[in-house]
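I keep forgetting this: the sequence line spells out the residues, with the fold written below as integer tokens. I include a record here:
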Amino acid sequence: MTNGGRRARPLATTGRKQSAMDLSIVIPVLNESGNVVPLLDEVLAALRPVGIEFEVIFVDDGSDDDTAAKLIARQGDTPELRLVRHASRYGQSMGVRSGVLAARGRWIGTLDGDRQNDPADLPAMWAAANGPEAPGLIAGERIKRNDNWQKRYASRFANWLRQKLLHDGVKDTGCGLKMFRRDLFLEFPHFDHMHRYLPALARRHGARVLPVPVRHRAREEGTSKYGTLDRALVGATDLFGVWWLIRRSRFPIRLRDDGGAR
């Protein structure tokens, strides 16, 4: 992935050995100084009682405030915390990808860095990930949007159009709260803004997608990094690109050595 001819250079501030664990929470952030520490504490409070091995990876996408400094200050007393830093800004999708590449978890959970997603929903998503339905991806669907009316109606139209073209079975693909298998994500083609199409890409690979209702909170600190118009313009191009990609995809039925399908 490049931006103006430059390659993203994620710089990890931790050097721990890469070994498998249960769950990695990946949170891309840009100038979220007022949100990162409270969000970290909420994630820890939600997941520590679950009794799983997890890590929390913040990906700082070239912030020019003290977002990274606040996280670095917490690393000494928070063994679950890791920080990946981009040398400049490359966008949310590259932030997610950098976090996944650095992750040690079999499963990945993603959250937006503005604290509008509620980490208290993570344990239920983890239970669903290990439930009888065996999903490859769990997609949060916000049951009540705490955004202004322009964002709500723009999102409603975008979701309607996406469903008409992609049939991904998810009503709210823009929700940042998701959980998916790391190995599945690494099979996806990478492109800018791909984070909005993870359910469609998962279904393209034959994985089960499970929507679950989640909470949504009003932003209390910082400012939104997206405008309604710029989101719509890039979204139209991406939508038709993903539609083309799905129509051109063919995946073989793999056979075991004994001749049985799997």
Summary: Residues 8-147+169-223 form a domain with the Spore Coat Polysaccharide Biosynthesis Protein SpsA; Chain A fold (CATH 3.90.550.10). The chain has one domain: 8-147+169-223. The first strand starts at residue 2 and ends at 3.
